[in-house]
Design a protein that fits this description.
This protein is mainly alpha-helical. Helix content is 79%, strand content 0%. It has a domain of 99 residues. The chain has seven helices and no strands. It is extended. 15% of the residues are buried.
């Protein structure tokens, strides 16, 4: 049976569920905002504990990464992501989730060939392109000075 691209598009659009964009956007905003509020609360706690601004920021990043990894390991981060969508991709927690999730998926293949080899399948390109962009921008800045 031959079907034209237009007929296929019409068939798919008739079958596809409409995306609740306003609801999804609102949930992403709330989820991302709550993660940021949690991060600010952790930062304030470290600052009240006597850490300087830079040290409190570093400690906050470490705590957020550890919490994200723990919640991913307990399969709670994924449940949050089902409701919060893109809001759970707040850079540091989303990145930690992107590293831990594949490692958890491939742990049955062993520590080296499974977890260690697969943990950067999602986050690896981000690291590579981020590093490459940093080098390119650095060279451009150096040449402009």
């Amino acid at each position: 049976m031959e079907i034209s691209p237009e007929e296929y598009r019409d068939y798919v659009s008739g079958r596809a569920r409409k995306s609740p964009i306003v609801r999804d956007t609102a949930l992403a905003f709330v989820a991302g905002g709550l993660i940021c509020v949690l991060g600010q609360g952790i930062h304030n706690a470290w600052a009240r504990a006597g850490l300087g601004e830079q040290d409190a920021s570093l400690a906050t990043s470490c705590v957020l990464i550890a919490l994200s990894a723990l919640l991913t390991g307990l399969n709670l981060y994924n449940k949050l992501a089902r409701y919060g969508g893109a809001g759970t991709l707040v850079p540091i927690t989303g990145f930690a989730n992107a590293v831990v999730s594949p490692a958890m998926d491939f742990k049955s293949e062993g520590m080296i060939t499974g977890m260690a080899a697969k943990m950067f399948t999602v986050a690896g390109p981000v690291i590579v392109y981020g590093t490459l962009a940093g080098v390119v921008y650095g060279v451009i800045l150096m040449l402009l000075r």
